[in-house]
Amino acid sequence: MDCLFCKIVEGTIPSAKVYEDEHVLAFRDIQPQAPVHTLIIPKKHIPTMNDAAPEDMELLGRILLAAQKVARDAGLADDGYRLINNCGRDAGQVVYHLHFHVLGGEKLGPLNVKEQPDR
Ligand code: 5GP
Ligand code: ZN
């Protein structure tokens, strides 16, 4: 399948993995927006949050608990972190394989950051 994150799961595209189990993979974002910026993905190809189904309930829980672990292992548990899913065009989703961003390691800006002119 022509999906970037499926290729990262398969290992045909390399990534800096920080956590992996049978169902979930976490790896560093290639363009970090904070000192810690990790992506948590299901190994199963689910394009967006809109495509998650009741049968994915356990998998969604696994993703959240993996995010918690990644944040804890990165030393973010006490100071805090942000967990983000961009769903669809208006949210700026670029890769259509479900993923959650774990961001932290500094005081983060406002949640609803409007589109910026090219920096
Ligand atoms: P989205 O905007 O879809 O929520 O986020 C996609 C994220 O994937 C972006 O933060 C982007 O930097 C990251 N990304 C895109 N291509 C690659 C890649 O090849 N490797 C890694 N590690 N991250 C990527
Ligand atoms: Zn995929």
Q: Distance between the terminal alpha carbons, to the nearest Å?
A: 33 Å
Low-confidence stretches: none
Helix content: 10-25%
What's the alpha carbon Rg, rounded to whole Å?
14 Å
Neighbour order of strands in the largest sheet: 1-2-3-5-4
Oligomer: single chain
For the biggest sheet, the summary is: 5 strands, antiparallel
User: What shape does the CA trace take?
Assistant: globular
The CATH C-level name is: Alpha Beta
Q: Give the bound compounds.
A: guanosine-5'-monophosphate, zinc ion
Number of separate domains: 1
Mean pLDDT: 96
Q: Which H/E pattern describes the elements? A: HEEEHEE
Describe, in plain words, how this protein is organized in 3D.
- There is one protein chain.
- The chain is of the alpha+beta class.
- The protein has one domain: HIT-like (HIT family, subunit A).
- It is 20% helix and 21% strand.
- A 5-stranded antiparallel β-sheet has the order 1-2-3-5-4, covered by helices on one side.
- A hairpin with a 3-residue loop joins strand 1 and strand 2.
- The mean pLDDT is 96.
- It binds guanosine-5'-monophosphate and zinc ion.
- Zinc ion (ZN) binds next to helix 1.
